[in-house]
Amino acid sequence: MNEHRTEHRKIEQNYPRRQTVTLAGAASTAAMLATMLLIGCTPLPPSKPASEFTPQEARGAAVFQSHCARCHYPTTTHGLHGPGLQALTKVKAMPSGAPPTDARITQTILYGHGMMQPVAVSDSELNDLLAYLHTL
């Protein structure tokens, strides 16, 4: 047992604990950053300012507020009761893993998915909502 303690003291003398923690922290941070770069974690593009909305996008924002805002945040990826929708149409996959095509988004809105219930909107409201979702 004394040999183990002596060996441990030798290691601590040659490699102070403070340096080990610093190197471990730096290695961990570097690994995390490398992983983020490999999987494409880049900042999401900002949403279009409401002051620049077309009339259709503005109508879509109103549809979003009346039908979607109780479950989804529009300008963040943080979830409320459903996922946040920032950059929904600009990412490779929606939270479900499906590509964010208008057809897929329309299907999700009209028929629901997982815990999301179907949303009853007219064709014109749906088109306005899709235009708005493209601004996020």
CATH level-4 homologous superfamily of the largest domain: Cytochrome c-like domain
Q: Quote the CATH topology of the largest domain.
A: Cytochrome Bc1 Complex, Chain D, domain 2
Number of helices: 5
The secondary-structure class comes to: mainly alpha
Instruction: Kindly provide the radius of gyration, computed on alpha-carbon positions and rounded to a whole number of angstroms.
Output: 24 Å
**Low-confidence segments:** 18-39
> Helix content range of the residues, please?
40-55%
CATH architecture of the largest domain, by name, is Orthogonal Bundle
Mean pLDDT: 78
Overall, the morphology is: globular
Biggest pleated-sheet summary? none
β-sheet strand percentage: under 5%
Write the element-wise H/E pattern from the N-terminal end onward.
HHHHH
> Which CATH class of the largest domain applies here?
Mainly Alpha
Descriptors:
136 residues, mainly alpha, Cytochrome Bc1 Complex, Chain D, domain 2
Write the layout of secondary structure elements.
Elements: H1 2-14, H2 17-39, H3 55-67, H4 102-111, H5 123-133
Describe this structure in words.
- The protein has 136 residues and is mainly alpha-helical.
- It has 2 domains: 2-39; 50-133, Cytochrome c-like domain (Cytochrome Bc1 Complex, Chain D, domain 2).
- The chain has 5 helices and no strands.
- It has helices spanning 2-14, 17-39, 55-67, 102-111, 123-133.
- The longest helix has 23 residues, at 17-39.
- The chain starts with a helix and ends with a helix.
- Mean pLDDT is 78; it is low at 18-39.
